[in-house]
Every structure is written in C-alpha cells, then in structure tokens.
Amino acid sequence: MNDYDTVSADVEHEDEIPEDHPRYQDLITRHRIEAGVEKGITHLQGMHAEGRGSAFDYLLGEETIPSADAAERAAAAHLLLADRPVLSINGNVAALVPSEMVALADATGADLEVNLFNRTPERLQAIADHLREHGADEVKGLEADAHIPNLDHERSKVDADGIYAADVVLVPLEDGDRAEALDEMDKTEIVIDLNPLSRSPQVADVPIVDNIIRAVPTITEHARALADADEDELRAIVEEFDREQALEAAEERIRTGTTDE
Ligand code: ATP
C-alpha cells in the first residue's frame, strides 16, 4: 500500500491530515492547491506546477537543506537592505502561503503585489481579497500601469510603484520568461523554486531550492533575527552567499540523496 492509500485526497479541511503522516507536507500542499482552484485563486495549470515541485521535494527529502537555509538568510538580508522590496504573489503562492507572505512583508517592510501568468480581473481580485483575509493591508498589482520590457503585453503588466520600481523582488514559483525579463531589468531577484535546473533559479541572484511552505517562514525568521543588524552585517551576509554553490548543492542532493554540506 502506498502513502496515498492511507489518507483520502479530498479531505474537507487540512486539519484532517494527520501530522505524523510520512508525506504530510505534500498532502497539505496538494490540499491547499485544490482549495485554491476551487476558490478561483489558482489556475488549473498551477496543479501541474505543484506536481513538478512535489517530485523534487520528495527527492530533497522534504527538508530545508543547509544551502537553502543559507539562501533564505541571504534573502532576508537583501530584503532588509532594499529601498523598495516587493514580494510577488501568483495563484499558487496565494493558495499555499497567504498569511506567511503577509508576515514576511511585515518583517521586511516589503510590498505585496499580485502578478499572474494567467491574468483575469476576477482572479486578481480573488487573490487580493484572499490576501486581505489573511491580514494584508495594501495589495498592489491591480493598477498594472507599467510593463516589464521584453515580455508579451498581458504577461508584462505590473504596478509602476510596485515591481516596476522595486530594487529587490521575491518571485516564488515563477515562470522562466518573466524571471529572465526581471533579471534584465537589473533587479536583485530572489527565486523560490524546487527545481534547481529551472530557468528561474538559474537567473536568480538568490536561488532558494526549497518548498515555499518551508522557505517563506524561514526567511521571516531570519529577517526577525536580523532586525537589529547594521548595514555592514547585512552586506556581509549578502556577499558571503554563493549562488552557484547553492544550486550545485541542491542538484547534488536531488540526484544522489547526499550533499557535501
Ligand atoms: P521554467 O522556469 O524553465 O519556465 P517550469 O515551466 O517548470 O520552468 P513553471 O511551471 O512556470 O516553471 O513554475 C513552476 C515551478 O515551481 C517548477 O519549477 C516547480 O518545481 C516549482 N514549484 C512548484 N511547487 C513548488 C513549491 N511548493 N515550492 C517551491 N517550488 C515549487
């Protein structure tokens, strides 16, 4: 019998999933994505994205490896140093970690901006409402009065005083085209993605190869611990971080089940 035979896939509420289940995190994640689709927050394609992520997380051992933790600390330092940090929210992010993204925004002084691949006014509004239900005050992304260069019209829409003007952007679970276009705008890009070979982490200044449900609370914990750090200390953390090493360590863990770390 496999793990999935022990818990029905269509539980009404995630509290019904036993915490000691060997694939607990995966079941929670799937349940939240399904609920997101039902609520009009997550596109059906988000389920496929989640499936890909789930396979990589299985191979990572569903844990935050040391290089991912180092990346999460560097991400916290970047966000604290930033003049205009923005956290980008898509349908999967909103379904999986709404209150956690609000907590990270609070801990770092960042703005939240809804930014969708499959953009409809209804989904934008549903996500903004969902974030407000989870404690957000201001949600950007509805104005869409600026464009990211080198992307097709609909996919490029952002707020002029949000992602467009940001110096540091957190873009979790992002598609490669947009991550590349943001990279070309010379922003500091922090990407959360379980596939280290995907284009988004490959172009990121800080690639975080970890499940978003672990990564975001960990970045927030680091940001809180660094709240009183001076600029020199934060800059040292940023400079110490080695993006190539982080990508290699994650790939090695996924391919072999071990790391040198
Ligand atoms: P590319 O970046 O080359 O366009 P892709 O087409 O696989 O790659 P998308 O499907 O747009 O990218 O993005 C989904 C990405 O998010 C995948 O790389 C997937 O591994 C990752 N992902 C899915 N669920 C999670 C999660 N819970 N936490 C972190 N990453 C995730």
TrEMBL record:
Gene3D superfamilies: Phosphopantoate/pantothenate synthetase (3.40.50.12640). Its EC number is 6.3.2.36. InterPro entries: PPS/PS, PPS/PS_sf. Keywords: ATP-binding, Coenzyme A biosynthesis, Ligase, Nucleotide-binding. Pathway: Cofactor biosynthesis; coenzyme A biosynthesis. It is an enzyme of class 6 (ligase). It comes from the Archaea. The keyword Nucleotide-binding applies. GO terms for molecular function: acid-amino acid ligase activity; ATP binding. The keyword Cell inner membrane does not apply. It catalyses: (R)-4-phosphopantoate + beta-alanine + ATP = (R)-4'-phosphopantothenate + AMP + diphosphate + H(+). ATP binds at residues 30, 52, 193-195, 199-200, 211-212. One of its GO terms (biological process) is coenzyme A biosynthetic process. Catalyzes the condensation of (R)-4-phosphopantoate and beta-alanine to 4'-phosphopantothenate in the CoA biosynthesis pathway. Belongs to the archaeal phosphopantothenate synthetase family. Homodimer. This is 4-phosphopantoate--beta-alanine ligase. It comes from Natrinema salaciae. The lineage of its organism: Archaea, Methanobacteriati, Methanobacteriota, Stenosarchaea group, Halobacteria.
